[in-house]
Structures are given as C-alpha cells and as structure tokens.
C-alpha cells in the first residue's frame, strides 16, 4: 500500500517504513504528526484518487529529527562593474518515518 501526500508545497509518494526529509514542521522529536492531505491511495489493484483529497484517509508519521540542510552559496555578479555579492542559505527540514497509512 502506498499514498501520495502533499506537504510543504510538494508531493511525496510514501509507504509504511519510509524515511523522508520534509519542509520544516512545527513538531517535537518523537511526536506523531498526521498528513490529512492525501492525493492518491493505492492498495494493490485498488486505487482511489481524490478531488482534491481522498476522504477519511490519513497518513501518520513519527518525527525523528529537526535539522538544517547543507549551505548553498548564491553569487550575484554585475558584469564590467567589478561588483560581486556572495550570500548563503540553509533550509530547515524535519526528518520523519511513516508509521501508518489508513483509509
């Protein structure tokens, strides 16, 4: 059984036991979070698609870690002006493990 969930403006195909790095969620480490926005649910040959979401279906996950991704560097450069600006950015993430998918 697998599901397609929507969280943080992105879509993920998940099944029980998967470990994902999602956009930052306001949850404590060890707590349980649920994702009610399920776009599709599949169990063998039985597939149910939502419009926009599948009714009465939830995906539950356990929060494993709160962290930050590696730093990316951004360089802005103006040609012929001898001007360069360097910046960096680190995005927060939440690492979760999918515990259950229910219909």
Automatic annotation (TrEMBL):
One GO BP annotation is: translation
On the tree of life, the source organism's domain of life is Bacteria
Q: Name one Pfam family in it.
A: Ribosomal_L21p
Keywords in alphabetical order, please. Answer: Ribonucleoprotein, Ribosomal protein, RNA-binding, rRNA-binding
* NCBIfam families, A to Z: L21
Family, according to the entry, reads as follows:
Belongs to the bacterial ribosomal protein bL21 family.
Which named protein is this? Large ribosomal subunit protein bL21
Query: Which gene is the coding source of this polypeptide chain?
Result: rplU
């Amino acid at each position: 059984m697998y599901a397609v969930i929507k969280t943080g403006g992105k879509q993920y195909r998940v099944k029980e036991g998967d470990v994902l790095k999602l956009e930052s969620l306001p949850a404590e480490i060890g707590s349980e979070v649920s994702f009610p926005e399920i776009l599709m649910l599949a169990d063998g040959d039985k597939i149910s698609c939502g419009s926009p979401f599948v009714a009465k279906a939830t995906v539950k996950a356990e929060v494993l870690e709160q962290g930050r991704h590696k730093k990316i560097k951004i360089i802005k450069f103006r040609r012929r002006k001898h001007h360069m600006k360097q910046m960096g950015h680190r995005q927060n993430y939440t690492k979760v493990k999918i515990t259950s998918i229910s219909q």
